[in-house]
Amino acid sequence: MTEEKELIDRLSRGYMSAFRELVEAYKKKMYYFALDMVRDPADAEDISQEVFLKAFRKFKTFKRDAKLSSWLYRIAYNASIDHLRRKSLAPQTVEDETLDVASQGFSDSPPSPDPARTAESRLLSARVEKALQKVSQRERTVFLLRHYNDLMLEEIAETMQISIGSVKSYLFRCLRKLQKELAVPEAPGQMEVSDERL
Amino acid sequence: MKGCKKCRDRLVEALYGDLDPEQKTFFKNHIASCPSCAAKFKALTETLKTMDKRVRPEPGQDFWNGYWDRLSQRMEEERVGQEESRSWGKAFSRIWSLRARWAFQAVAALALIIAGIFIGRTIFSPPRVAFEVASQASETPPVQPGEGDPVLRARSYVDRSKLVLLALVNYDPKSEDPYGLDLPFQKQVSQELVSQAGDLKSDLKDPSQRRLRELVVDLETILLQIANLESKNDLEAVEFVKQGVENGGLLLKINLNEMGRDLSGGGRRAAAEKSPAQKTNI
Fold first, then answer.
1. Contacts of B90 (CB under 8 A, 6+ apart)
2. pLDDT at A192 over 70
3. Which of A138, B114, B173, B252 measures 20 to 30 Å from A68, CA to CA?
4. Residue A71's closest CA among A148, A150, A161, A184?
């Protein structure tokens, strides 16, 4: 916390070295959160860079008593929502997006010694992605922030500008929906399609 | 079972280990004693474990190594773009300020010119109506001999003759330029009038038109003399004609005729039907 305060102090004075420290500390978090939100690596990088550019330009608007990570996540959340709104004019199908992301993930990973297990893992990941697309945007965002980005409920509330009660409610509803979705066995036809795509 | 609602309210925090020690104790005790809540908790824990199987695409170390460089490049591009737009903005504002100055001057000058034209046309120019009436009158064809009311033609004749006579009578060679009298023009008008006199005399047959016919005859005589003046500067001849006008009392006769015309109520009509020559100041 003392380190963060020191960083904030240097950032407010406009030190470029402090800005670089900020980027190095949060680049992965911002990128992965943006990737979770928009599910496109190029767009995710673009959004994450936009987060840092905004943070650099508008650091004077940052409130000292707030948490730096919450502020950055809030910028990333807004940028992602704006991006999704723009992109919603030409949406892809859920299946295409899910399979695209799953295949992208595995295309960069090193070759596995156990192809059968790798294929099973791919299918499971694709199924999880698909389940995530079945919940609402807000429910998904709350879950992504809590489960994959380790933000506390208070931080999520600050990021999304909603109450903690709302965060809990969204998270609980999301978990119930995911549970229901993952409990349903995958249809054979869909599995075949997934195999073909993978 | 008692405490199920409280347990459900703490379920999310319990799944992520966010409960404080007191809440944690309560939750553990309740789960141990409530199979329904325990089953729910277990099912959701399994769901979270499944969600952990999700694989995020890893961009690779090269991506992370070059991240700062790409971000710096983007910042530089944005900075240059902002400077360019700022310089364009400055240039535009400079042009705008210059343009505004001369534009305001031009607009002010134009407004003054328009105001001057408007004032000149509305206040200082002569009334257009009179000019238009005169021009319309000049466009009307002259009354041809033998055409129209002979009385009206005779009155027009008398009026035109009066103008010629007045020009001649009022001419004073001692005090005025001898060339001030436009004798050729008066001769020309006189010739025209003489040519009309013959028809008028024959048309004024009614006994009530006798006096008018006699006036036309008297005027014809003197107009004939004027028409026959030979030289432009023949002052003796002019004096001779003037004496003839005075001796014959022609102007008096004309005035009497006009008075009678007014008394008979024809003055307005006659005035309205003045000849084109009178209206154009012959």
1. none
2. no
3. A138
4. A161
pTM to 2 decimals?
Answer: 0.53
Amino acid at B197: A
Given a contact cutoff of 8 angstroms between Cβ atoms, the answer to whether B41 and A140 are in contact is no
Q: What is the ipTM of this complex?
A: 0.76
* Distance from C-alpha of B169 to C-alpha of B246, rounded to nearest angstrom: 8
What is the residue whose two structure tokens read 């008394």?
B263
SS3 state at A20: helix
**Contact state of A28 with B60 under an 8 Å Cβ cutoff:** no
| pLDDT of B206 strictly over 60 | yes
Interface residue of B13, B48, B61, B67 to substitute, partner A, most A CBs within 10 Å: B67
Taking an 8 Å cut-off on Cβ atoms, the answer to whether B55 and A105 are in contact is: yes
Contact B172, B181 (CB under 8 A): no
Which pLDDT band holds residue B111 (cuts at 50, 70, 90)?
very high
Task: Enumerate long-range contacts of A143-149, CB under 8 Å, 24 or more apart.
Answer: A143/A170, A143/A171, A143/A174, A143/A175, A143/A178, A144/A33, A144/A36, A144/A37, A145/A33, A145/A73, A146/A171, A146/B16, A147/B48, A147/B51, A148/A32, A148/A33, A148/A36, A148/B54, A148/B56, A149/A29, A149/A32, A149/A33, A149/A36, A149/A73
Give pLDDT tens digits for A66-95.
889 999 999 999 999 999 988 876 545 444
Encoded tokens for B102: 């001369």
Residues A89-130: pLDDT tens digits? 654 544 444 444 444 444 444 555 667 777 777 788 888 888
Mutate to test the interface with A, among B5, B7, B11, B12 (most CBs of A within 10 A): B12
